[in-house]
Amino acid sequence: MTTTDTAATGRAFIDNDALMLRARHVSKRFTLHAQGGASIVALTGVSLDVERGECIVLAGPSGAGKSTFLRCLYGNYRATGGAIAIRDDTRAERHVRIDGAEPHDVIALRRSVVGYVSQFLRVIPRVPALTLVAEPLVSRGVDELDARERAAALLARLNVPRRLWELAPATFSGGEQQRVNIARGLIAGHPLLLLDEPTASLDAHNRDIVAELIEEARQRGAAIVGIFHDEATRANVATRRLELSAPAAALQTH
Ligand SMILES: Nc1ncnc2c1ncn2[C@@H]1O[C@H](COP(=O)(O)OP(=O)(O)OP(=O)(O)O)[C@@H](O)[C@H]1O
Ligand SMILES: [Mg+2]
């Protein structure tokens, strides 16, 4: 990161209460050690500011780096260039650099600030759907009975059949698992939400319900960055779009 990047981020989160995320010139290159050290450039120089109440839709062709960018924002992938700052009001500077953060800072930030919904549910064996969905609330200190009530309401809203609530999702259909995943991602009201194709396995009716839930989160002031595979949902939820294009000469051997 350059001195200009530091200066740009320095007071930004103090001066602007609405700013939740600032990404500057983010790039990501994967080195394939198992394949002769070939490297893949997945992102070059992506910049984005996201404020409360905004829903930014990432668009662009398959392979353009949309999921990679989202994973860099969540701290799953470490950006190889640029800077990513996320609001953290527990700090004097009101932000933390996720691209250089220590694991315990990343974990703390995920508990209270950043929520992430991927396309697939990571199924934990033997844990019932209702418990899975209630868990992010319980871990934030909400009383267990309250948490389970709110989880039940959300599962009902997403049309997950009541007979499934006390079962582990391993045997659920793809769409049922996806709805459990969405409920788990949205229940805690994180102020920054990252959504990677959360509706890909859903029918049109349930897709619309998810779009409504996203809209409600936005109205409550959440900042959202999302990837959606269908144009109807994109048009439904976006307040702004960020177009990514596949970097030229993405595969480099050296
Ligand atoms: N873990 C990884 N290791 C190596 N290369 C990766 C890795 N993750 C992503 N890539 C590469 O980065 C590029 C961008 O992939 P990414 O999944 O971000 O695209 P995308 O825009 O989300 O595409 P899609 O719309 O198909 O989901 C691809 O060329 C992909 O092969
Ligand atoms: Mg993707």
UniProtKB/TrEMBL annotation:
<keyword id="KW-0456">Lyase</keyword>
<keyword id="KW-0547">Nucleotide-binding</keyword>
<protein>
    <submittedName>
        <fullName>Phosphonate C-P lyase system protein PhnL</fullName>
    </submittedName>
</protein>
<keyword id="KW-0997">Cell inner membrane</keyword>
<dbReference type="InterPro" id="IPR003439">
    <property type="entry name" value="ABC_transporter-like_ATP-bd"/>
</dbReference>
<keyword id="KW-0472">Membrane</keyword>
<feature type="domain" description="ABC transporter">
    <location>
        <begin position="21"/>
        <end position="253"/>
    </location>
</feature>
<dbReference type="GO" id="GO:0016829">
    <property type="term" value="F:lyase activity"/>
</dbReference>
<dbReference type="GO" id="GO:0005524">
    <property type="term" value="F:ATP binding"/>
</dbReference>
<dbReference type="Pfam" id="PF00005">
    <property type="entry name" value="ABC_tran"/>
</dbReference>
<dbReference type="InterPro" id="IPR003593">
    <property type="entry name" value="AAA+_ATPase"/>
</dbReference>
<keyword id="KW-0067">ATP-binding</keyword>
<dbReference type="InterPro" id="IPR027417">
    <property type="entry name" value="P-loop_NTPase"/>
</dbReference>
<keyword id="KW-1003">Cell membrane</keyword>
<dbReference type="InterPro" id="IPR017871">
    <property type="entry name" value="ABC_transporter-like_CS"/>
</dbReference>
<dbReference type="GO" id="GO:0016887">
    <property type="term" value="F:ATP hydrolysis activity"/>
</dbReference>
<comment type="similarity">
    <text>Belongs to the ABC transporter superfamily.</text>
</comment>
<dbReference type="InterPro" id="IPR012701">
    <property type="entry name" value="CP_lyase_PhnL"/>
</dbReference>
